Task: structure prediction
Amino acid sequence: MESVISDSVLLAFEILLLSCFYLQFGTALDTVTPSESIKDPEFLISQGGVFRLGFFSFANSTNRYVGILYNQIPVQTVVWVANRNKPLKDSSGILNISDDGNLVVLNGKAEILWSSNITNLVPNATTAHLLDSGNLVLSNGEDGASSLWKSFKDASNAFIETMKIGTDVQRGLKVELKSWKSIDDPSDGSFSFGFEPFNIPELVIRNNNKLYFRSGPWNGNIFIATIMKTVYIDGFHVVADNQRQVYYITHEYSRLKYYELDSQGKLVERTWDAGKGDWINMYFTSQTESCVYGQCGAFGMCDLTKQPICSCLKGFKPRNIEEWSRGNWSSGCFRTTPLQCQRDKNNGSEAGQGDVDGFLKLNMMKVPAFPDLSSINNGECKDQCLKNCSCVAYAYDAGIGCMFWSGDLIDMQKFSTRGVDLYIRLPSSELDKGKSN
Result:
């Protein structure tokens, strides 16, 4: 009995000494300071124990990385990596505050493998604090009053709660996800996910900086054409402030759910299942049911329910028959009969004296890329388009207004359960009776 009491007293005394140590040196368990660094295999834990910051390796590799991981999940789950493109080759790594005030990862030779890379810092005045949100924040002073750098703004492949993916046009800032090269190689992959303002804001995925997927324009409630239900019922929040030119998407749902841009360019919803002891992956149907951006070329329409999946719009033919027959549709289609307004211009006639152009209505469509918008009423969209010979299509959404297209129509898709009505301008000779509008 005496031994048990002695051991308990000793343990309490050790805890008290440890607490006094941290109080004396002003170092919290969730903070890196100029005088307190992290050496492999040490780590920090956020105040509530949700995330940890430290060194780790993948199962099939001896490379060492510094990253942020879920702390209370038994499966290693990485949400951010510092030295993703420059792994440590041994366990000599150190994470510390450098002489210039930056947060850096060093190898055993004191070579910098990664840096927060902020200029004009005050030496010996910065600290890095790991929050329960999973955000690592470099600040002036321990009170964190002045944020200098955040891991949330230097994102990896994970989109976790309260992060903001988006663009601040005026300040020239952009935060986007970047895919890993593979499941156990966090170096930069081919894909990125962001929120682009364009003329009307859209979510986009790029492959080697080229458009690969787009969500359709944001109408204030949903991304039209490719409706992502989670945008408005699962904690997502979208801000599209045209006046301030700030556009971002964030979510506040659960710390045991996050989104990951995988190495194949798919945005995956990952939810922790305690019963199975693993993450459950679910792909957005808007992606799995979408064609690759521009797959059918100009004036080509994609329909995944048909074979081949690409076809030319009515009044158009493949630009390259041989390529088209081989399943390469990228050259797109061309108009077989000029628009009446164009012929009137060429003949020097006034519009409206003879036949006039009309519109072919296509239901449940993903609208083409890069529309111009107008706030005029729905009933005026058609007339407005007809007044401009360069207008080749229009659509209407109550949250956006009229959308107009000139030039080539790119990235159209036919859906079976969603989408908007798209009106394609054609000469009257191409319109079957009853299909014009």
Q: What stands out?
A: The radius of gyration is 28 Å.
